[in-house]
C-alpha cells in the first residue's frame, strides 16, 4: 500500500522538501550558468566586465512621438563616442511589453530570449521626411569618460505607449552621465525645432499624435483685413521676435498673447497661417478640439523648441466645457499654462474665437495673458473688392466688380472665396479666357438660392431677404446691430 502525505512524519517531510529545493536550485544554477554563456548574455557582460547580476540599469521614458528626436540624439552620441558600434537585438517573448533588463534576465533564467537582429521602424521628421529608428535594439558603447556601457532603445506597449532609453553600466553615475548627455543632444538637435506641428489623437487607445504640416507661404497682400490691423499684429508678434535679444537684455518679457475674434469665415485662421509663414524660424504648435486635453504636453514642447507659436483655434469651444463649474476648468488651465510659461520664454500664444463674449470674463479675471485683441470683422466694400481680385488668382476679370461688391454686402471672406471658385469653374466649362458678368451672375444666383441657405450659413454669411436673386444679385443682408464684445485693457 502506497504511503500518503499523512503517513510521513513532519521531520521527514521537511527533509524531503529541502532535498527537492536543493535539486531545483542546482538545476536552476546549472541552467543559469549555461545560459549565462549564451551569445546574448555574453555580448552584454563581456563588454561591461561584470555578471548580469551586478549591472546597474538607468532608464528614461519619452513620449512615443519623441522617438525620432531620441534616435537622432543617440546616433549623434554613438558618432561621438563609438562610431564603429553596431546594434544587435533580442529574439523571443512578448518584447513590446517587457523592459530590456527583464528580457536579459529571462534569457539567463530559461534561455527564452536569444541574440538576434534589431527591430527597425520609421518615424516622421517633417511633412515629407522620415528617418529609420530602432524599435528594439542594444549597442555596446562607452560613457563620456570611456567606461563601457550598453545602450538600448525600445518602444513599449504599456498603459500608454512610449519610447524607452535604457543604459546598462557597472556604476549608477556612469549610466546617468550617458543618459544626461543623450538628453542634452536631444534638446540641441531636436528635428521638431522650426517645424509646424499639429497635436491630435490616434485611434489607438486615444494616444496623442503629432502631425507635421507644411509651412504656409502667404504674402501680406493675401491677408485682407481692415486698414492697419495686420500691421498692428505684425508689430506685436513679429516685431518682438525681431528684437528678442535686445528686449531680453533690456529686461523685457518675450511671451505674448494675441486674440483674434470675429464671426466665422472672416479670416482668423488665414491670419494665423500668415504668421506661421512669416516667422519661418519659429516652431508652430497647433492645438484644436480634443487635443486640448494634452495642452500641458503641447506647451512644454513649445517651450523646449522656442522660439515658438502656440495656436489654439476656436478657443470659445473650450469655454463651453464647464461641467459643474460656472467657468471652464479647461479654459483656466489654458490661462494658467500661458502664465506658467515664464516671461523669459520666446513663446507666442495665438487664440481665435467666434464668440469673444464666451471668453471675456475669464480673460478679465486673468489679466495679462492676452496683451493684444484684434477684431477680424466681415469685409467692407473695399476689402471685398480686394478679395475678388485675390481669389481670381491672376485670371482676367471682364466684369463690373462694383456690382459684385454691392451684391455681396454682409458676406465673409470665405463666401467670396467660394464665389470665385464657382465663377472660375463656370468660365472653365465655357472655355472662356476671362471672368465675365454672366459668370458672376450665374454663380451669385446659385449661391443666393433658397436651397443654399445652409451653404451660406456654413460660409459664415448673414441671412437676409431674397430680393434681387433673380437678377443674379445677392441681396443686401441684415446688418448685425449687436455691439461686438470688446476686451478691457490688460492690467500691467
Automatic annotation (TrEMBL):
<comment type="similarity">
    <text>Belongs to the AAA ATPase family.</text>
</comment>
<feature type="domain" description="AAA+ ATPase">
    <location>
        <begin position="254"/>
        <end position="380"/>
    </location>
</feature>
<dbReference type="InterPro" id="IPR003593">
    <property type="entry name" value="AAA+_ATPase"/>
</dbReference>
<dbReference type="GO" id="GO:0016887">
    <property type="term" value="F:ATP hydrolysis activity"/>
</dbReference>
<dbReference type="InterPro" id="IPR003959">
    <property type="entry name" value="ATPase_AAA_core"/>
</dbReference>
<dbReference type="InterPro" id="IPR027417">
    <property type="entry name" value="P-loop_NTPase"/>
</dbReference>
<keyword id="KW-0067">ATP-binding</keyword>
<dbReference type="GO" id="GO:0005524">
    <property type="term" value="F:ATP binding"/>
</dbReference>
<protein>
    <submittedName>
        <fullName>ATPase family associated with various cellular activities (AAA)</fullName>
    </submittedName>
</protein>
<feature type="region of interest" description="Disordered">
    <location>
        <begin position="459"/>
        <end position="492"/>
    </location>
</feature>
<dbReference type="InterPro" id="IPR050221">
    <property type="entry name" value="26S_Proteasome_ATPase"/>
</dbReference>
<keyword id="KW-0547">Nucleotide-binding</keyword>
<dbReference type="Pfam" id="PF00004">
    <property type="entry name" value="AAA"/>
</dbReference>
Amino acid at each position: 500500500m502506497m504511503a500518503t502525505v499523512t503517513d510521513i512524519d513532519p521531520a521527514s517531510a521537511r527533509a524531503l522538501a529541502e532535498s527537492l529545493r536543493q535539486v531545483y536550485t542546482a538545476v536552476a544554477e546549472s541552467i543559469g550558468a549555461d545560459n549565462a554563456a549564451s551569445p546574448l548574455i555574453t555580448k552584454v557582460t563581456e563588454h561591461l566586465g561584470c555578471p548580469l547580476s551586478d549591472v546597474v540599469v538607468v532608464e528614461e521614458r519619452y513620449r512615443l512621438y519623441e522617438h525620432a528626436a531620441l534616435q537622432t540624439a543617440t546616433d549623434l552620441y554613438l558618432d561621438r563616442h563609438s562610431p564603429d558600434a553596431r546594434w544587435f537585438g533580442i529574439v523571443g517573448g512578448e518584447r513590446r511589453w517587457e523592459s530590456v533588463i527583464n528580457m536579459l534576465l529571462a534569457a539567463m533564467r530559461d534561455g527564452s530570449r536569444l541574440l538576434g537582429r534589431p527591430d527597425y521602424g520609421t518615424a516622421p521628421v517633417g511633412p515629407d521626411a522620415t528617418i529609420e529608428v530602432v524599435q528594439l535594439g542594444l549597442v555596446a558603447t562607452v560613457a563620456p569618460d570611456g567606461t563601457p556601457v550598453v545602450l538600448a532603445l525600445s518602444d513599449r506597449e504599456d498603459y500608454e505607449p512610449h519610447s524607452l532609453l535604457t543604459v546598462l553600466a557597472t556604476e549608477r553615475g556612469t549610466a546617468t552621465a550617458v543618459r544626461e548627455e543623450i538628453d542634452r543632444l536631444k534638446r540641441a538637435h531636436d528635428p521638431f525645432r522650426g517645424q509646424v506641428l499639429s497635436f491630435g489623437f490616434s485611434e489607438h487607445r486615444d494616444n496623442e499624435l503629432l502631425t507635421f504640416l507644411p509651412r504656409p507661404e502667404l504674402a501680406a497682400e493675401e491677408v485682407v483685413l481692415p486698414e492697419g490691423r495686420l500691421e498692428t499684429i505684425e508689430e506685436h508678434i513679429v516685431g518682438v521676435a525681431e528684437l528678442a535679444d535686445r528686449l531680453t537684455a533690456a529686461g523685457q518679457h518675450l511671451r505674448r498673447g494675441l486674440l483674434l475674434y470675429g464671426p466665422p469665415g472672416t479670416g482668423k485662421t488665414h491670419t494665423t497661417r500668415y504668421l506661421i509663414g512669416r516667422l519661418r524660424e519659429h516652431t508652430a504648435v497647433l492645438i484644436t478640439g480634443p487635443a486640448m486635453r494634452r495642452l500641458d504636453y503641447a506647451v512644454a514642447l513649445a517651450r523646449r523648441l522656442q522660439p515658438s507659436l502656440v495656436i489654439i483655434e476656436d478657443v470659445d469651444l473650450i469655454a463651453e466645457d464647464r461641467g459643474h463649474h460656472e467657468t471652464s476648468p479647461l479654459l483656466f488651465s489654458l490661462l494658467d499654462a500661458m502664465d506658467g510659461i515664464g516671461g523669459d520664454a520666446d513663446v507666442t500664444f495665438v487664440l481665435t474665437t467666434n464668440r469673444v463674449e464666451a471668453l471675456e470674463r475669464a480673460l478679465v479675471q486673468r489679466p495679462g495673458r492676452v496683451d493684444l485683441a484684434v477684431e477680424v470683422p466681415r469685409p467692407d466694400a473695399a476689402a471685398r473688392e480686394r478679395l475678388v481680385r485675390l481669389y481670381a488668382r491672376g485670371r482676367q476679370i471682364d466684369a463690373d466688380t462694383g456690382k459684385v461688391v454691392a451684391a455681396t454686402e454682409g458676406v465673409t471672406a470665405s463666401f467670396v472665396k467660394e464665389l470665385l471658385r464657382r465663377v472660375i469653374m463656370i468660365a472653365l466649362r465655357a472655355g472662356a479666357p476671362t471672368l465675365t458678368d454672366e459668370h458672376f451672375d450665374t454663380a451669385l444666383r446659385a449661391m443666393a438660392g433658397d436651397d443654399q441657405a445652409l451653404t451660406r450659413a456654413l460660409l459664415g454669411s448673414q441671412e437676409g431677404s431674397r430680393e434681387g436673386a433673380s437678377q443674379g444679385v445677392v441681396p443686401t443682408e441684415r446688418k448685425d446691430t449687436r455691439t461686438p464684445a470688446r476686451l478691457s485693457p490688460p492690467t500691467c
